[in-house]
């Protein structure tokens, strides 16, 4: 497994496993505490795993947490997703930077999203399973959503949004969220 910097987001990493493939399929390691430690991350800090299943065209996000924020490891374990990260850390050298990556069950790559960054994705296949490992127990009172279709962000979603949660459809734009945060 190797770790690669995500240039548009300071402190974000892509962890790419080395699959062992044969006539049965493949086997690969999707989490390695030593590799996380090699880039300065505390592997023991991750306390909760979750998974979502989405149909083609579904958009989830853009989400982040208030307070201390939430770092997460994101992996598409089945299918393919268009993954988006927006850096909302005012002191970051990549503040307001955006990263667009494709994650897939074929590669099993894992994206590290630092605390203070908004995250979202769109399912590109009929079924896309996305796994999350987060560094704090979820507290719904800290949930923040940003409009996935905010013209100021101009996210190039590859497909029309076929389904978006009520909460995400009603989410304010980035400028309003930043104003509320005092950023």
Folded structure, characterized:
The chain is mainly β and 183 residues long. It has three helices and 13 strands; from the N terminus they run ββββαβββββββββαα. The strands form three sheets. The protein has a six-stranded antiparallel β-sheet, with no helix packed on it. It has a five-stranded antiparallel β-sheet with strand order 9-8-11-6-13, with no helix packed on it. Strands 3-4 form a two-stranded antiparallel sheet. The protein is globular.
Order of helices and strands: EEEEHEEEEEEEEEHH
Helical residue percent band:
under 10%
Placed side by side, the strands forming the largest sheet appear as: 1-2-10-7-12-5
Q: How many helical stretches?
A: 3
Strand content: 35-45%
- The helix/strand class is mainly beta
What's the shape?
A: globular
Which sheet architecture does the biggest sheet show?
6 strands, antiparallel
Radius of gyration from the CA trace?
16 Å
Question: What's the total count of β strands?
Answer: 13
* Average predicted local confidence, pLDDT: 95
Unreliable residue stretches: none
- Give the end-to-end Cα distance, rounded to a whole number of Å: 36 Å
Give descriptors for this structure.
3 helices; 13 strands; 183 residues; six-stranded antiparallel β-sheet; single chain; 10% helix; mainly beta
Summarize the structure.
By secondary structure, the protein is mostly beta strands. Helix content is 10%, strand content 40%.
Describe the protein's topology:
Layout: E1 2-5, E2 13-16, E3 20-22, E4 25-27, H1 33-38, E5 48-55, E6 59-65, E7 72-78, E8 80-87, E9 98-104, E10 110-113, E11 117-123, E12 127-134, E13 143-145, H2 166-169, H3 174-181
Antiparallel strand pairs: 1-2, 2-10, 3-4, 5-12, 6-11, 6-13, 7-10, 7-12, 8-9, 8-11
């Amino acid at each position: 497994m190797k770790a690669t910097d995500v240039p548009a987001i300071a402190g974000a990493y892509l962890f790419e496993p080395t699959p062992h493939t044969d006539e049965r399929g493949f086997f690969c390691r999707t989490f390695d505490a030593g590799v996380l430690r090699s880039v300065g991350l505390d592997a023991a800090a991750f306390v909760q795993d979750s998974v979502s299943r989405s149909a083609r065209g579904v958009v989830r996000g853009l989400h982040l947490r208030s307070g201390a924020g939430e770092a997460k490891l994101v992996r598409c374990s089945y299918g393919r997703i268009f993954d988006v990260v927006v850096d909302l850390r005012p002191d970051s050298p990549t503040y307001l930077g955006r990263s667009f990556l494709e994650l897939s069950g074929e590669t099993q790559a894992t994206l590290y999203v630092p605390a203070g960054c908004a995250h979202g994705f769109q399912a590109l296949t009929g079924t896309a399973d996305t796994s999350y490992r987060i560094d704090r127990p979820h507290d719904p009172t800290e949930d923040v959503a940003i409009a996935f279709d905010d013209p100021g962000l101009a996210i190039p979603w590859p497909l029309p949004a076929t389904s978006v949660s009520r909460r995400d459809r009603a989410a304010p734009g980035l400028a309003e969220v930043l104003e509320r945060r005092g950023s």
